[in-house]
User: Which sequence fits this backbone?
């Protein structure tokens, strides 16, 4: 038998063994298909950064035509669920008790000062605990206010002309739908989890059960072992990947501007990186308990927080930005967000894919080095 | 009674040793949470700094230069370069070299001086829609200030009324004040669940759980003994992170420590209960780990940690009611920032107590009824 044929035979035997193990213990199939399905459904529908249904207390101390038209403007806005209050004390108490998220306050001299003095003030309070939501809510309150003010001025015969008028054009996502960037990011988070979970336990399990020693006495070489272990999980992981992409397109209606091939290529590369991470963890840990914990710690949380999926990387402090470079999800999130919303922009795709390729080589190389045939 | 306590003590010591005797698992329990605390707190912020901005100025006048100086002078923005042709805009944005382009038309200063409104076009990369909205907000503020000074110094009419917005509890809207208490809850949950979720599964896999069942230990005693390491480690690490939040990250602490510790105790109880329940359902450690994952990941994302629960669809909002982290985050933020009283916090204490009791009871029942 030529060496090539022998290698092929050993790799094929290893693949067969792993595939049988996958089929017999349904937990791997659950990780590859059910976990992404459940997670994407939950998060896709559950995670949104838009501020909607803001419960707003409208305090009107003396009702008249002006206050009525102003509160009417808030009632018509889709962003608010307005509740009317007679006095500010009651509203402030409810803001403290989390019953409302914000207050708009028209004092009883509002109309008089609006008509005569031209120095009327509308007070607004928002609960600042969730700073991001508070900022967006402030923006919405300001929007309603500006529109009302302009129409009030028009009704009284003078046009309000602010000197500089900002005309925002939001590219790629004109409706500012947060789902369009969150769902592609979620695919990256979910794939990181799936890939690393699939392989993080497979080598540790062999060590724990003592079957690693049995494998060592076979003529199989280390890289044949790695290929044999990775391939079945790669097929499984890519199956889960296609399922999540299909859901993003047809369940969540996220538009795909780029090409399907760019997406598939990048995903295959990333799946190898995620599997490689799991394999390396598994090789180092040697016990399922430690392997599982490391997998959780080094994959899910960094993919969630350090990948640019929700938090903007360029706003992080310099040392943290340096750390994000060793988080593989960072590159995949950049690719996914670009392919989905902007299209095949090659400079972005190629540079990030190159980074992923380097990580894949490093991870698999390290896994190979660490898994010498040695008992200790 | 005394015999019972002794049995519990013996089992607790054994359980603690099972977790701590291995050097690798000791390291895993201590080092990652601290590293995560340090890295994530600095990373997880919605405040934008150094937003890359490119300027496309076709205007020759002074007004546009004044406004540009204001934008670049702000800590939120960072100038990456000037554009002098339309065709340069697309590649700059596409390749993520800049997030926004400010486009001043040729008549910008002239329009302003003649008392007309001057449009300022703002092109934003909308790939991250949240960032796009926030950037718009920052610029609107700068332009608003500019407009007020311009109108005043050029004798133009000012609007008859003004809006004054103030944020309670966090007047500068520092998002770290929101995130750090959240991380206290996040890390406490992860540590506690992980410590407990494998404790029964490990013994089941090794076959020693059956031995435990034939000892004089009653199921309740096994339950207490098995909960012990999770409670102890969760309590210590939670307290440490809390200490760091106040003393290192300078998050204001306005409520009472007692109110917070009632919350911590109930939260750890519920997390240990869920961990033990997962562990009792699992036959192998892999299943236990998978169960812990399948609980932790949704528990973190659907807790209100980063994205608000109020935005979730009705059905998902119902799911969050069985998530102990949901309640604990409200308690943490309430005690830290709002100084909430016991009366307000009461609404969030009892659901965690119920989750804890139900899951612990169920795991105790499973000890005896899940034997194959």
Assistant:
């Amino acid at each position: 038998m030529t060496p090539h044929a022998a290698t092929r035979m050993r790799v094929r035997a290893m693949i067969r063994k792993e595939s049988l193990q996958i089929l017999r213990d349904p937990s791997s199939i659950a990780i590859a298909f059910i976990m992404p399905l459940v997670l994407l459904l939950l998060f896709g529908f559950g995670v949104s950064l838009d501020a909607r249904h803001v419960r707003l207390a409208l305090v009107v101390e003396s009702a008249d035509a002006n206050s009525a038209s102003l509160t009417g403007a808030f009632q018509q806005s889709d962003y608010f669920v307005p509740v009317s209050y007679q006095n500010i004390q009651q509203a402030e108490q409810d803001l403290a008790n989390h019953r409302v998220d914000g207050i708009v306050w028209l004092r009883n001299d509002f109309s008089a000062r609006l008509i005569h003095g031209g120095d009327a003030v509308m007070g607004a309070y928002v609960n600042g605990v969730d700073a991001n939501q508070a900022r967006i809510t402030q923006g919405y309150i300001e929007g309603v206010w500006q529109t009302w003010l302009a129409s009030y001025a028009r009704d009284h015969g003078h046009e309000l002309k602010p000197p500089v008028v900002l005309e925002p054009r939001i590219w790629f996502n004109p409706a500012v739908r947060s789902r369009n960037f969150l769902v592609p990011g979620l695919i990256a988070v979910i794939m990181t989890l799936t890939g690393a979970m699939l392989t993080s336990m497979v080598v540790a399990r062999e060590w724990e059960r003592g079957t690693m020693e049995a494998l060592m006495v076979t003529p199989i070489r280390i890289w044949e072992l790695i290929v044999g272990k990775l391939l079945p999980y790669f097929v499984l992981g890519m199956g889960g990947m296609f399922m999540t992409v299909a859901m993003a397109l047809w369940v969540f209606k996220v538009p795909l501007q780029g090409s399907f091939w760019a997406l598939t290529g990048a995903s295959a590369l990333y799946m190898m990186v995620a599997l490689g991470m799991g394999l390396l963890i598994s090789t180092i840990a040697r016990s399922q308990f430690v392997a599982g914990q490391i997998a959780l710690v080094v994959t899910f949380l960094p993919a969630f927080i350090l990948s640019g999926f929700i938090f903007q990387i360029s706003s992080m402090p310099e040392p943290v930005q340096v750390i994000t470079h060793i988080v593989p999800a960072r590159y995949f999130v950049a690719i996914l967000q670009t392919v989905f919303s902007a299209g095949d922009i090659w400079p972005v795709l190629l540079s990030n894919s190159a980074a992923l390729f380097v990580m894949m080589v490093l991870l698999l190389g390290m896994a190979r080095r660490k898994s010498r045939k040695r008992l200790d | 009674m005394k015999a019972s306590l002794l049995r519990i003590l013996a089992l607790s010591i054994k359980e603690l040793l099972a977790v701590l005797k291995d050097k690798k698992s000791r390291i895993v329990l201590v080092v990652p949470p601290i590293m995560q605390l340090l890295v994530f707190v600095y990373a997880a912020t919605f405040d934008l700094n150094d937003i890359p901005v490119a300027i496309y100025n076709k205007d020759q006048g002074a007004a546009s230069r004044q406004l540009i100086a204001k934008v670049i002078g702000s800590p939120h923005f960072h100038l990456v370069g000037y554009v002098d042709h339309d065709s340069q805009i697309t590649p700059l944005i596409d390749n993520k070299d800049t997030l926004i382009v400010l486009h001043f038309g040729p008549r910008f200063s002239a329009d302003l001086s003649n008392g007309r409104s001057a449009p300022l076009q703002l092109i934003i990369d909308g790939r991250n829609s949240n960032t796009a909205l926030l950037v718009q907000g920052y610029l609107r503020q700068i332009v608003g200030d500019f407009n007020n000074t311009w109108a005043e110094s050029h004798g133009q009419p000012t609007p008859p009324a003004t809006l004054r917005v103030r944020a309670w509890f966090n007047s500068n809207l520092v998002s770290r004040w929101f995130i750090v208490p959240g991380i206290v809850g996040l890390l406490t949950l992860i540590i506690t669940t992980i410590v407990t979720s494998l404790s029964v599964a490990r013994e089941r896999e090794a076959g020693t759980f059956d031995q435990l069942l034939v000892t004089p230990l009653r199921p309740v005693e096994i339950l207490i003994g098995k909960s012990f390491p999770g409670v102890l480690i969760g309590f210590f690490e939670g307290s440490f992170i809390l200490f760091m939040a106040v003393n290192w990250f300078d998050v204001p602490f306005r409520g009472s420590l007692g109110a917070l510790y009632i919350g911590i105790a109930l939260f750890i109880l519920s997390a240990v209960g869920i961990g033990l329940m997962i562990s009792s359902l699992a036959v192998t450690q892999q299943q236990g780990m998978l169960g812990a994952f399948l609980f932790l990941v949704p528990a973190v994302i659907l807790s209100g940690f980063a994205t608000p629960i109020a935005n979730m669809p009705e059905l998902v909002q119902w799911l969050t009611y069985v998530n102990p982290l949901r309640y604990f985050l409200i308690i943490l933020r309430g005690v830290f920032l709002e100084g909430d009283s016991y009366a307000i916090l009461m609404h969030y204490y009892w659901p965690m107590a119920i989750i804890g009791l139900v899951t612990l009871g169920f795991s105790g029942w499973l000890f005896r009824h899940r034997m194959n």
Summary: The beta strands of chain B are 51-57, 77-83, 100-104, 118-125, 161-168. Chain B has a mean pLDDT of 88.
